[in-house]
Amino acid sequence: VSWLHRHRGAVPYLLLAPGLAWLAVFFVVPLGFLAYQSLESGSFEVGYRFTWEWSNYRDAISGYNEQLMRSLVYAGLATLIALVVSYPLAYWIAFRGGRWKNLLLLAIIAPFFVTYLIRTLAWQTILADNGWVVGVLRFLHVLDADGRLLATSTAVVAGITYNFLPFMALPLYVALEAIDPRLIEAAEDLYASRVQAFLRVTLRLSLPGVFAGTLLTFIPAAGDFINAQLLGTPRQHMIGNVIQSKFLELIDYPAAAALSFVLMAAILLGVFAYARALGTERLTG
Amino acid sequence: MTETFTRIELLRRGAAAGIVISVPSTLLAACGGDDEAAATTEAAKKQLAKTLRFSNWTLYIDVDEKTKKHPTLEQFKQKTGTKVAYYEDINSNASYFGKIQRPLSQGQSIDRDIIVLTDNTRFPGLLIDKGWAEKLDKSAIPNIVNLEDALKHPSFDSNREYSLPWQSYLTGIATNLKLTGGKPVTTIDQLLEDPKLKGKVTLLTEMADTMALVMQANGDDPTKVDDATWKRAHDRIKTAVDSGQVRQFTGNDYTGPLAKGDLVACISWSGDVVQLTADNPNLVWNVPDTGGDIATDNMLIPKGGDVYTASTYMNFVYDPKIAAQIAAYVNYVTPVKGTKEEAAKLDPKLATNPLIFPDEETLSKVKIFDSKAAGNQDYLEQWQALIGA
After folding, report:
1. How many Cβ atoms from other residues are within 10 Å of residue B357's Cβ?
2. Neighbouring C-beta atoms of residue B99, cutoff 10 Å
3. B281 touches chain A (CB under 8 A)
């Protein structure tokens, strides 16, 4: 205890140490290895050697820019839909949930009690060509007589939206829940219409939740491959599918590592631009 | 094959990707691996383990429809006291090998005593060349004399030191007759180009099986692949993928959508469909008019597996009486001599089933895919891009 007294300045660092160690061991070090691997050349049969093979990056970008773009578009769409669906949901729970709040929150995360794979497989049944969803849509002429949902982009985006929705809804709820209702009352007292009060007070104060929710949804969604694998066709495959097959099926580590970095760079750039647009200062401070 | 990287490099490499891909499994493997490996090497003596851990493909062993148990595995237990932990966890050679190569490359056991890989891929050869397969204990396999002559000297294991065939299989086309008005799809042309089948067709992720069929439809020879014939088949499949004709590339997992009616027809394995017809009489399987493909799945003992127990089991299934029971259920081509006579005792119809005991006519319509092409890195990459992109 006396040591701590004398080195009071060290306390924050000591408290940070486990977190930093975790980051170092499970993030920084593997990332370093991955970077190293991404510059190797060779093959699985003869082994890989480090040769500053920058062409891995060129090949990754030129060979798979289609899947990369598709990943960003699908993830972006899914994030947008999740936001539009979640916001009213979170709003309602936060302001009108009353004593049902906890139960409703539990309902949002309830699907997480079933594994990711099974949840996605269930969508195969829901969207099956002979299922009732397709049947109803055909009856309403939304789909052609031989139209289908499974194995289309719609199915993949729907699957991603569904699987990541709670990551959007929960931060939104936390942000909305923290808003002091008296601020909205004050706005209305000052002759703001309900719409104006929502736009100027509620929406703005909930922006940190929107920011956190979109990041939590978009980032993992962009790297997802399960939905495209199970609900799409090769024409819906995303960059995650390519990385997965390079890593696990072709056992081509350098190409897989280079692709992973390209994906990471693309996401970082996107997030950076997004944060600038929304104004990080206001969001985090 | 030469092992060019050093142990340190190997560990480093393994650690890097291992952590990135799957932290939990790497940690678990790291914790439990050493003891396990040591224990199983010890057990390489003539003592049967309590449990035999066996990884196989789905729909590939006999099942009692009522009890859902596997009768031959039960018999093995009665005979030897060893229980078989049977895992149907192989759906594609490439992805299964991808899963097991990481621990094997680090000298860890994969907790399996027998795994099954196909000879028209590079994987059985790779497993042996990398030193990741245990030699069979042939003293425990006197029944090896029953191995069909044609299968005695495969190129990847010329004297069967490491492997024994599980079954051979034919690749052809399965059709759900309910969706075609009772007419089976019998040509690759229909499968890849008939607009009526658009989006209702799947091909196999196994390069050799799919390519062999398409090449023959092109009038090319799949036993001797060259760049021109490869490209012709590749481009034809690519056109079908780009147009949306092909819905997906699959392993055994085509069975569900085919039975449900999401698929009208697909490239598929002979026995699978015969087994499914029990529940769904609308399914049929045919060798395509232009020719099918035959290949053999091989049992191998991965490093760290229990050699004696695995060898004892192999000996057990090379008894024609047992082989007949398995064949009767799975409807695949059995590699065990004398099975036909045993099958006739079980059921005379069985012995004349051309899928289990192919006649000259069937055999003349199926080819073995070029093994060099099956391991060609360039082709493999193009193939992966085709099925994954």
Report:
1. 17
2. 17
3. no
Half-sphere exposure of B209 (CA within 13 A, CB side): 30
Q: Check CB contact of B95 with chain A, cutoff 8 Å.
A: yes
Nearest CA in chain B to A239: B389
Q: How many residues does chain B have?
A: 389
Whole-Å CA distances, B69 to B78, B131, B342: 14, 34, 22
Closest residue by Cα to residue A265 from A38, A23, A26: A38
Angle between helix B377-388 and B207-217 (nearest 10): 90
Question: What ipTM was estimated for this complex?
Answer: 0.78
pLDDT tens, residue by residue, A12-54: 888 999 999 999 999 999 999 999 999 999 888 888 999 999 9
Contact indicator for A109, A166 with CB cutoff of 8 Å: yes
Chain B interface, mutation test: which of A23, A129, A260, most B Cβ atoms within 10 Å?
A129
Inter-chain touch B389–A43, beta carbons under 8 Å:
no
Residues contacting B87, CB < 8 A, separation 6+:
B53, B54, B55, B56, B112
For residue B259, give Cα distances in angstroms to A117, A128, B127, B188, B381. 21, 12, 35, 20, 32
| A-chain residues near B246 (CB < 8 A) | 233-234
Alpha-carbon distance of B122 to B372, in angstroms, equals 9
pLDDT, tens digit (0-9, with 9 covering 90-100), for B62-81: 999 889 899 999 999 999 99
